[in-house]
Amino acid sequence: MACVEKNVEFELILELPWTRRHDFLALNPAATVPVMTQEDGLVLTGSYAIREYLEETCADVPLLGTSPPERAEIRRLIDWFDVKFNEEVTTLLITEKIMKRFLKLGVPEADNIRCASSNIKQHLKYIEYLSERRNWLGGDNISYADITAAAHLSCIDYLGDVPWDDFEGAKDWYARIKSRPAFRPLLKDLIAGLPPVPHYKNLDF
To answer: What is the number of domains present in the chain?
Structure first.
């Protein structure tokens, strides 16, 4: 999303990190994604490093704010979604509903799914709180805060586990970012044998 917003040409390559492919480990011994490589041989690993690099090298379209207080707030929200939301919602649902299925790790644990379903409501309330007071989550302009939040929510929305109708403010914010050209490649993602819910690709829900 950031590359499209910043008009950076790129090619996406699917990597299954749990296979621990030798060539991939040579790029990133931690065997985690994302990894960004460039023709000059530069290799960057992790969303934090990639995000900061893009911000410094493609500054014409700022996604990290334009002042120290704004950048600090956007970084705080990135951390909120990449750490707190990820632990309380994304990881629980993705592990139980997708990873266990494809890695044959047993049946989903209902308690974890119920926990994530409860937790996401508090996060949607927080998104509403932010969107009622700002044009975008981190301030006047779209930023990495919106991109990070939307990236997590798109994974959950694919499964149909976001109660949008109970949180109209969050739904309106998501509809705005969902309609951006940068978001449309995400809507084309498909998991083999697990199609998305019908509204996933609908820009107006």
So the answer is: 2
- What's residue 90's pLDDT? 97
The structure tokens listed for 128 are: 């509403």
Indicate the residue type of 32: T
pLDDT greater than 90 at residue 50: yes
Pair (197, 154) in one structural domain = yes
- Specify the CATH number for the domain of residue 33: 3.40.30.10
44: enclosing H helix or E strand? strand 43-45
Residue 50: inside a domain: yes
Decide: 63 and 86 in contact? Cβ < 8 Å: no
CB-facing half-sphere around the CA of 203: CA atoms within 13 A: 10
Whole-prediction pTM? 0.92
Q: Residue 62: inside a domain, yes or no? A: no
The two three-digit tokens of residue 6, written as one number = 């910043």
Residues 31 and 92 in one domain: no
Helix H or strand E encompassing 3: helix 2-5
Q: Please tell me whether residues 98 and 72 are part of one structural domain.
A: yes
pLDDT band of residue 193 (cuts 50, 70, 90) is confident
Residues in the chain, total: 205
